[in-house]
Design goal:
Largest sheet of chain B: 7 strands, mixed, barrel
Shape of chain A: globular
Distance between the termini of chain B: 10 Å
Oligomer: heterodimer
Number of helices of chain A: 14
Strand content of chain A: 15-25%
Number of strands of chain A: 14
CATH topology of the largest domain in chain A: Aconitase, domain 3
Distance between the termini of chain A: 61 Å
Number of strands of chain B: 7
Strand content of chain B: 25-35%
CATH superfamily of chain B: Phosphohistidine domain
Chain lengths: 384, 137
């Protein structure tokens, strides 16, 4: 990869050690993705905020790194482990280490978004412009729905972009890669957001390319289904974008059998003692759908709803928050179902959710069994 | 039989270890215990095996972007592979994790067939030549 004189100086440490580390990361991913050069990015979104995901090694690294490192482009950040405005029973150590991580990002200049759906909260750059998004679901969303260009960045590659304002020009930043060369042929009716999540999870496992097509049948799906699809695709695979272009090259079929084997892997219990909604965090559209379904009903199980703080504030103004809280739900801001320290094996035998992404991480990282159902079925089965 | 596979160096360095080979991708966040290096995902063919001190040959990583921190945590906890070779493509998560953790990383050339690897075999990643040497031990 060609570096300009300034970039070479940065790599050589002439502008300090954090910038040199950032260029070292960019060089490795540039080599890995066969980039010829670096290009500017307008917005960075970072993952690696929840202490449950990056642990002590990450917390110590960020604390050291933030002594000198500063972000040079607008940089939003992913959810952390809990809602800082609410009481929780988490250990002192968790809160201390989570606090360290938050302070490190703050010091480097992040916008305290604590959200995995920044595309719903902030004004978007013009179509076709380059950003650098870690958080796999958000990278897939902005590439596929909003036509911003990003690779499926890692926490560290996006951090390097926040420090330098640059990213390698490769893979999904190049138009030809954004044209899918492989498609999933959908051979069954898809009705619910869960159906789309299962499709996404299957596709991620089946495709090694960076972009996959689902054909024009997914052209007009709502936000709940789109986010469910994007998050599941980002969870199981290396794919960073989907498209609705009809193509006739290589095709893989997703039918009843494929759906069944996907659900059999993720659905590990028949019921649970808590409902968790929001991975990705719920936006206004999903809260509206939920409110409509909850008219005159109360949850018969504990229910946690994860959303971004600005979404919660809007829902307070519109009255939706009150409807859901009166129905027995806890609305938790700044956090997300995924690897949430609030959903542990010690406390819960099983978690009921409609999110395929949440099901993956609850099963495999939290070690909690998951009962996977679509939203309507959850409300049918667990309200009174 | 001893033989050598061609590759290109993504993160430099020369290291050796016992080969751990899989054709299945790895989600470093959800499938690996970064304190011990053990593969904890029951659905993975390496379930129960440890990455610690190995030469890991795998296609590419999948899933969470935080996997890069997981690779760094493995190294910090002395539980990481000694070196890694990607057999299909080097993804950004693996490349950036290895860069920050100083774990030598190769991408194997796709114009060669990887012969069946006898277990146990030792692998040497040579970053200067971009080769992975494999010998039965």
């Amino acid at each position: 990869m060609h570096l300009t004189r300034d970039e070479e100086d940065g790599l050589d440490g002439k502008n300090g050690s954090p910038i040199s580390t950032a260029y070292k990361i960019l060089l490795s991913i540039g080599k890995a993705t066969n980039a010829e050069r670096l290009i500017p990015v307008e917005w960075v979104h970072l993952s690696g905020v929840n202490y449950n995901t990056i642990g002590d090694a990450g917390a110590e690294f960020l604390t050291r790194y933030s002594q000198e490192a500063r972000f040079v482009v607008p940089t939003t950040i992913n959810p952390m482990g809990y809602d800082s405005n609410r009481q929780n029973d988490l250990s002192d150590n968790f809160q201390k280490q989570q606090g360290k991580i938050v302070r490190a990002y703050e010091k480097m200049g992040s916008i305290p978004s604590f959200s995995c759906i920044p595309y719903e909260l902030f004004e978007l750059p013009e179509k076709g412009h380059n950003v650098s998004f870690a958080e796999s679901s958000a990278a897939v969303m902005v590439n596929s729905v909003f036509d911003l260009h990003t690779n499926k960045e890692s926490s560290l590659s996006a951090l390097a972009s926040a420090i330098t304002g640059k990213a390698p020009y490769s893979d999904l930043r190049i138009d030809s890669t954004r044209n899918p060369k492989i498609s999933i042929s959908i051979d069954k009716e898809l009705k619910t957001e869960l159906d789309y999540g299962l499709l996404g999870y299957f596709a991620g496992k089946s495709v090694k390319e960076s972009c996959v097509s689902f054909g024009s049948t997914i052209s007009n799906i709502d936000m709940y289904k789109t986010k469910s699809l994007a998050a599941a695709l980002g969870t199981s695979g290396a794919c960073g974008m989907f498209s609705n272009k009809d193509i006739h090259d290589e095709t893989i079929t997703f039918g009843k059998e494929e759906e069944k084997s996907t659900i059999d892997e993720l659905n590990t219990t028949d019921s649970g003692d808590v409902i968790a909604l929001g991975s990705p965090q719920l936006g206004m559209y999903e809260l509206e759908q939920l409110c409509k379904l909850m008219v005159g009903k109360k949850f018969s199980k504990k229910c946690m709803i994860f959303c971004a703080r600005p979404t919660y504030e809007k829902s307070c103004k519109s009255g939706m928050a009150e409807i859901l809280e009166k129905a027995g739900a806890n609305i938790i801001c700044d956090a997300c179902t995924c690897l949430s320290p609030l959903l542990t094996r010690e406390e819960y035998d099983g978690v009921i959710t409609n999110s395929v992404k949440a099901a993956h991480y609850l099963n495999k990282s939290n070690g909690v069994s998951v009962c996977l159902k679509d939203l309507k079925s959850i409300i049918r089965d667990y309200t009174k | 039989m001893d033989y050598s596979l061609k590759g290109r160096t993504i993160v430099g360095g020369t290291v050796k270890g016992l080969i751990l080979f899989t054709t299945q991708p790895i989600n470093f966040l959800s499938s690996v215990d970064n304190k011990t290096g053990k593969i904890t995902d029951k659905n993975h063919e390496l379930f129960g095996k440890t990455l610690k001190d190995s030469i890991l040959i795998f296609p590419y990583s999948v899933g969470s972007s935080v996997g890069a921190y997981s690779i760094f945590a493995l190294k910090t906890n002395n539980a990481s592979p000694s070196g890694i070779a990607c057999s299909l493509k080097t993804d950004i998560t693996t490349a950036s994790g290895c860069a920050i953790a100083n774990i030598p990383l190769l991408e194997l050339c796709k114009d060669q067939v990887i012969p069946e690897i006898e277990i146990p075999s030792e692998g040497v990643i040579d970053g200067s030549s971009g080769c992975l040497q494999i010998k039965r031990v």
